[in-house]
Design a protein that fits this description.
Blueprint (H helix, E strand, L loop, with lengths): L3 E2 L8 H21 L4 H8 L3 H4 L1 H21 L4 H21 L3 H29 L5 H29 L4 H20 L5 E2 L6 H24 L4 H23 L13 H30 L5 H29 L2 H17 L9 H16 L2 H9 L7 H29 L7 H26 L7 H14 L1
Antiparallel strand pairs: 1-2
Helix pairs in contact: 1-6, 1-7, 1-8, 4-6, 4-9, 4-16, 5-6, 5-8, 6-16, 7-12, 7-15, 9-10, 9-16, 11-12, 11-15, 11-16, 11-17, 12-14, 13-14, 13-17, 16-17
Length: about 475
């Protein structure tokens, strides 16, 4: 197979590359969560239901999930510089479409274009970080990623809450666009090539099957809130999604160069940490979608107040990410993840008794503690799993991890919104609607409890033991 090694990762100047990658990731994640507090305003402006309006966030995560498997192929086909610049340009074009969108259909098209670019950026960044940093420093490096992932939701909901209260919601995209353009210009001059190109053959049938599979499942679950689980549209969508997804997975095992390498799941630690990451991300995105709807539509809070509720927790998660990264480098992921999931489970349960009189202080404090717990789970679990893979499987491992996490969050959020609307009582007042919110958080509590049980199967390893595991993985690969 033809190979093209495009960079010297040992002698390369890491700082400008890290800065550009983190900036791009920050913009993408900020954009992903920027609409959380704006959903009620979009619902009112475009006359949408909760189940329809939540598509502005879930479609972004779903397309992210669809694009991520393709990213492993793209990373091995194109140079790092060309791929990152292309991804940022696509993202910027999508942002402009969203800003100019006259209706919901055009807004959805813009979100799809945005997500196509963002879906490339995030796994590309993680792959580059794992290649340019030695294994004993990966915890700290991934801590920086966690910092960005955390500060984006800290700023996003509060910023969007203030903007939609004073200006039309489309201004959200006008604010994002200049930052995306600036990052493109800087990346043009400082981005270097650090990945190895092997020029794999693309399997177009796999792309079609994965798109129909993931898309069918999400559409079926999301539509259930509007049409009911017994609707022919819902049933047909779920069946088509399940069949094509099964065909996609089966096909990957037969291909010499699969789009998504399912063989990474033969590494037990990677499998466990991926499932834990999926559960944690459902809990994170689900709560950040449901709580603003509850606060603004059921409890009488303003958009700014719902943004303020999210901000302290997101900032706390951001400050903790580098700390947990350094702790991970010293003691490994096991006790970090166990402690974090215990906190997330307890705080999820504390959200199961909300009412129209629940105070902003209570919501803010519980959410902040919850985000503190999530900070101990996300990056440590991800890094611990990826550290078990040989270098040649790291692009596929990051692709699989990000795919499963984004798809789980998109489908999981759709399920939670459907549960929230289906469980709402016809009491004639907001208490009936809030009952649906409480039931949704009971489901979140059950999910995080499953994640907590799984976390006890993570092996406690030190950096030295991780290096030995990597050496063994390289020998067996």
């Amino acid at each position: 197979m033809k190979k093209d090694y495009t960079g010297d990762v040992k002698n390369i100047n890491k700082f400008p590359i890290v800065a550009v990658l983190l900036s791009g990731a920050f913009i993408a994640i900020l954009n992903q969560l920027l609409l959380a507090t704006a959903i009620p305003h979009i619902m009112e402006d475009l006359n949408l239901t909760e189940n329809t309006a939540q598509w502005v966030t879930t479609i972004f995560m779903l397309v992210n999930g669809i694009m991520i498997p393709i990213t492993a192929f793209l990373i091995e086909t194109f140079t790092t510089r060309k791929l990152f610049l292309s991804a940022m340009i696509i993202f910027a074009v999508g942002t402009l479409v969203c800003a100019l969108s006259p209706n919901f259909a055009v807004l959805m098209v813009g979100r799809i274009i945005q997500a196509s670019g963002a879906g490339i950026m995030l796994p590309l960044m993680m792959t580059i970080f794992l290649l340019i940093f030695p294994i004993e420093k990966r915890g700290s490096a991934m801590g920086m990623v966690g910092l960005v992932i955390s500060f984006a939701p800290a700023i996003g909901p509060t910023l969007s809450g203030w903007i939609v209260q004073h200006y039309p919601w489309r201004y959200l995209f006008y604010i994002i666009l200049p930052f995306a353009i600036i990052d493109i210009v800087i990346a043009y001059f400082v981005m270097k090539n650090v990945t190895t190109r092997t020029f794999p053959k693309v399997d177009y049938l796999s792309i079609v099957l994965s798109t129909l599979g993931f898309g069918g499942l999400l559409y079926g679950v999301s539509s259930a809130g509007n049409y009911g689980w017994t609707s022919i549209y819902v049933i047909l969508s779920l069946v088509i999604g399940a069949i094509t997804l099964t065909a996609f997975i089966t096909r990957q095992f037969k291909l010499k160069q699969p789009i998504l390498e399912f063989r990474v799941f033969k590494y037990k630690m990677f499998t466990i940490t991926t499932v834990i990451g999926m559960i944690a991300f459902i809990g994170l995105i689900g709560a950040e979608t449901i709580l603003p709807i509850y606060m603004q539509n059921m409890a009488g809070f303003t958009a700014i107040e719902s943004g303020i509720m999210i901000m302290p927790g997101a900032l706390l998660m951001g400050f903790m990410s580098p700390v947990t990264g350094r702790i991970f480098d010293k003691i490994g992921a096991r006790w970090l993840v166990i402690t974090g999931l215990t906190i997330v489970t307890v705080t999820s349960f504390l959200f199961t008794d909300l009412s129209a009189k629940t105070s902003l202080t209570y919501l803010t404090v519980v959410f902040a503690i919850r985000m503190f717990g999530i900070s101990m789970v996300m990056m440590p679990a991800t890094t611990a799993g990826l550290n078990q893979l040989p270098n040649k499987l790291i692009p596929h491992g990051t692709a699989m991890n990000n795919t499963m996490r984004q798809v789980a969050a998109s489908i999981g959020t759709a399920v939670l919104i459907t549960i929230m609307t289906a469980a709402a009582l016809n009491s004639g007042d907001t208490s009936g609607l809030i009952h649906g919110v409480n039931i949704a958080f009971y489901v979140v509590t059950a999910l995080t409890l499953i994640g907590l049980i799984l976390s006890f199967f993570i092996k406690g390893t030190t950096p030295a033991q991780e290096r030995e595991a990597m050496a063994r993985a390289e020998e067996s690969a």
